[in-house]
Amino acid sequence: AWSWLCRQPRVGSCRGFATREECAHLMNKVANSLTLPHEYRTGRSANDDAELASFSGSGCPLGAMHSDPVVRLLERRLAMMSDWPVAALEPCSIVRYQPGEEYRLHVDYFTAEQIAINRAQRNDLSGQRIATFLLYLRAADAGGETEYPDADLVVQGEAGMAVLHFNAAADGTPDLSSRHIGRPVRAGEKWLWRSALRQHPIYA
Question: Which pLDDT does position 123 carry in this prediction?
Fold first, then answer.
């Protein structure tokens, strides 16, 4: 079950969401495919600029063709725990932070303009990112915490731990307090598996 850490923004965590073997599988799956944001951001979302401007690590998106039974199992686990339809989960991605790398202050929600652009130009009818899901595949030896400055909340991750934070209300209204930071890694590496709970199904 989720342990709720904060109400505004709503942030929850779950230790032991994934096993050590599941985490290792996902890291090994993409270890040779990680690239810089400007190489893996495809322009398919109006929110790509946030990652390009704020993230200094590397990553790899996992589309439908790159998913496997472990990915599908984790998606079902997330849907069950969050009471959210699997069809409304954003395709996942994996990111890695090495020493000195960070994700500067940003938000994950879409503005009304971005939602309109996604709909009109990209045929993306799934609407708002209601919540963001982060799974720690590996925690940094030092640094790398996830910080929510408006709530004075700092989350120290550990391998297998999941974090769910809500970016918007159920009606899609953005929660301005959901802005957050991936603090710089000081030692070791930080790996995250990411997805998002979308307002409507991804696939019609």
Answer: 87
